[in-house]
Amino acid sequence: MMGRIRQWWIAVGVAVVALGAAATELAVGDGFGSAIKAFVAGALAALVAVLALTLPGVTWRGLLFGAFFISSGLAAWVFMDQPLVIWVLIGIQGAVCLFWGWPYLANLKESVKLGTTWLGVSYWVFGVIGALLVFDVGVTAQRIAYAGIAGLAVAAAVGLVRRTGVDLSIGVVAAFLFALAAILLSGSGNLFESVHTVPPGPWGKSFEYRFWGGEYLLYHPNALAGLAVMVAIRIGPDKTFAAWQRLAVTGVAGLVVYATNSRAGFVLLGVAGVVHAALLFWRRRQDVPNLPDYRSTRNTLAAIAVPFVVLGLVLVASGGVQGFLGRERYGSGGVTSGRVDTWKFVIEEWQDAGVVDKAFGDTKTARAVVKRPGGEGLLLPTDSSAVGSLRRGGVLGVIAFLLGLGLVLWHALAWVIRRGPPAEAWFVMAAIAAVPTMALNDWLLGGTGGTFWVLLLTGEAYLLAKSQVASQETVSV
């Protein structure tokens, strides 16, 4: 009876949200057809939120941890002209992590073993040193703040896992799902339209065909697609979750990749699908924690096919290989949307820079953004974690980045390489998928866009803590 009552209230809640989205469209005079589309989009947004609420293993700490990162990322787009709002959010995150991260020295000492620490913190430290050496007080102060926040986040993740033994990554992806629900609801009036709401100014120029959200809640399409795919990577291959939940997150990922027209999200889901297939066949020789056992070859092949069917539908609906993967997004810049031009510019500036900038990274701005000719005056990211490590941390940043990526892969594949403790399937998938996609996005470097980084951070911290507990139990026996 209680289960039926809950289902009834869920249905009512979804209907209310959907009707609210439809009523909004009618109120602004967009017509009955647009209202029907908004109704469907509003219902989808509500169902995504319901999906987040049904996930087992969500803790308020993990949820809050993920919410900090996704909120600062959203604020960077919503409050582009109001940096004070962003800094307030970052300050709140720092205060909470300051509380969670105690004892700092012990947790930071432990965090050096994490590859994600080297990926997301080291370049800020090198950047601080570089700014100090060129006597830029403003850049130094900002970078100290960024480095402190990143370091406290790592200390908090390590400390929480060591004290509670809880896997924070489930709460993190629940926060991602709530953010997706909010963005879908905000953009319900244009989700199923051919022309979408875009940010004002040059950022949204010629990008009206990509879904960004709504006027009051915007997020970059690639970051939005990445968010949905990360949820699918975390939930999809884990038998802790019900089959319908695993299917649902994969479907949501496909929908968001299609709506955002994101090649980065497409590649991330594709690589994760390939690793998922390999793990299911490898399972016959060694058990992978929490990887579902589909009991028959037929069921296993069906499970393997799911992400590729979703990707196939996205490809067909997006115009095929040429219309989607081979499309030139701008009037210039080729199929990489200007990434290659940005990378060339970063390397050329590095070659012409002084010794300090070569060793410790660009010192002109706090976040080492790129302002290249032909970029319409935009302060661009590098759109590559590898190139970003050079821009932000110089040669030392690249070395630290490669060390961090190597450690993440080592921990993910320790059970294959050296018969170490096996990592969960999702972490193996995420670690390997990070390698090709580091050429498409900055999301491995932490910061306001570091959603992939925080997911890997919580997963790696839990893996190492669990390994240490197992080792201590073995020694005591």
TrEMBL record:
The keyword Transmembrane applies. Signal peptide: none annotated. Keywords: Membrane, Transmembrane, Transmembrane helix. The chain crosses the membrane at residues 33-55, 62-80, 86-105, 117-138, 144-161, 168-187, 216-236, 243-260, 266-282, 302-325, 394-416, 423-440. The keyword GTP-binding does not apply. This is O-Antigen ligase. It comes from Virgisporangium aurantiacum. The lineage of its organism: Bacteria, Bacillati, Actinomycetota, Actinomycetes, Micromonosporales.
